Sequence to fold (462 residues):
Amino acid sequence: MASGSRKRSANGEYIFIDGKALRADEVVSIDMRSTMAPGQEAVSTVPGAKEAADGTKDGKTSKLSGALRNLGKDDALELSPEVLEGSLGIENTRSLLADERKKMRAKYLTFGAVLVLLALASLCMSSQHPGRFYAPTEVIAGLATWVQLGVTFVVDNANFATERLRAVQANPDLSDHLLQVQVVFKYLACGALLALSGMLYQNAFKNPIAAPSMLGVTSGINIALLVLVMQFGYEAFTHVNLYYVYSIIGGVLVLALVMLGGKWISGKGGFNAVNMILMGTIVSQLLGVVIQYVQTNFMDEVQWDAYNLLMNATGVVGPWMYGTLVIGGLAALIPVIVFRFRLNLISFSDAETKLLGVDPTRLRLLALACGSVMILVAQLNSGQVAMISLIVPFLVRAVFGAEFRKQLGGNLLMGALVLLICGDLSTTIVFDGYAVGLAPVVSIVALPLFVWMMALRQRSWE
Fold:
């Protein structure tokens, strides 16, 4: 018998290793003990160990053991070709991996194509005139004019102002086309960051309903806007720089308070997800009481209106928008991409992660820090739409699977797609000449999806 081959008998299934026949369940037991330190007790089980011992799963062939089938489909770690070759053989392994890559590539291409088509359709909408649509030819002509003006700005800067004035006089909607391009970019970037932040939080807390707002980032932004309105009144709308500066400071301070408090409660070197969530809930509730007290006793009608409008603001198209989205987004996204393989481990128990020589606390803190920066940057530019960070990761796990790299690409695509759809609906739906805000539309779209997914009991982070 070749080494590694299997053979069934009346007494069970045997694996031939170095010319000796060993029971499959004994091999699994030996493999578990070999990963433990001397004197260490078994604190966890290998996923699919029982299926590996039985040799079958759901009545299917024993060529691929239950452990491999479980890991390949449901768990966060993806099997390497070398591991699969020992059970399936080289040809079967290549076929299996090729089919898996083909299916995943088809999903990415499908969602990518839908996203591109929707983005192109969104360019035909008007940001300055809600409910108004442009013909594709008008949009193409307008954008071509802006490209020509850009070339003029670089080549002949002295005549740029004259050429721009002439172009705007010839086409009064020219500025609207450029504004819509920037709005579409904002929705795409914010949607992707919101979905990724939710994915990181849900994996870090191993909780399918964990949301970035649990650690007080949203409350920090709200208290910062309250201070801004109390200081400047209705003129707070004119202080775009302060809107961003105050919101960033408020969000970061409250987040730091929650994380340090949760870490202190958890003890030295520990990480307790429940303590973090409870600390975030306590701080958010306290800040909510402060905001309500100030609104009731110290705000006049003008300040009240200004605060409510700022709460529903979606940022301002300009340098601050690009700076926060590009710099903040990349600062949080790059570490996630670099550590994407290790971040698979935060979905497993701490005992299993430590057996691999990795500190799970540091990985979770990295995930929470990056996710918090993402939600902060996204909410600065899209308003109170944190529901996206809760719903989209659910959809992604159901469609793309639970492996971290698949979640990463899926959330980038689906998060951008969902927020862009909500943004288009908020521009299209008009009452009394005013467009519906983005936040109400997100709630209307997201809540039914959430109820539907919970009813179907879609898989969580596992």
